[in-house]
Amino acid sequence: MEIWLNPACSKCRAATAELDAAGVDYTVRRYLDDPPTAAELGEVVARLGLEPWDVARPKETAEAGIDLPREPAHRDAWLAAMVASPATIQRPIITAADGTSVVARDPETLAGIVERAR
To answer: What structural domains and CATH numbers belong to the chain?
Structure first.
């Protein structure tokens, strides 16, 4: 299991605390320091069953000047822009070994991925 996080984010800290409490093994990717490639982000977005703009943080996206159409034809441009400005990527994203990926911002989603990992 891997968790993409920003250690300054309270949702990320809550997620790692829950994983730790459950005894789940995971690796941390500080995606601001170690941004994903466009291919990696594209794979995670596909595993989530979403589009890149669905996991873009609105405020950070606006601050980065990303103003692209939310259309499949612009998927690659979205991925490239988000990789260039990784603060635009929603967090925390947890990817499990079984292929499950979630944006674990709410307690229910986090509890579900912890339960799957046990």
So the answer is: 2-117 (3.40.30.10)
* Beta strand segments in 1-118, E: 2-5, 27-30, 93-95, 101-103
Burial grade of 100 (CB within 10 A; 0-12, 13-18, 19 or more)? middle
What per-residue confidence (pLDDT) applies to 21?
95
- What predicted TM-score, i.e. pTM, was given to this entire model? 0.91
Contacting residues for 64 by C-beta, under 8 A, at least 6 apart: 81, 84, 85, 87, 88
Give the tens place of pLDDT for each residue, 14-36: 999 999 999 999 999 999 999 99
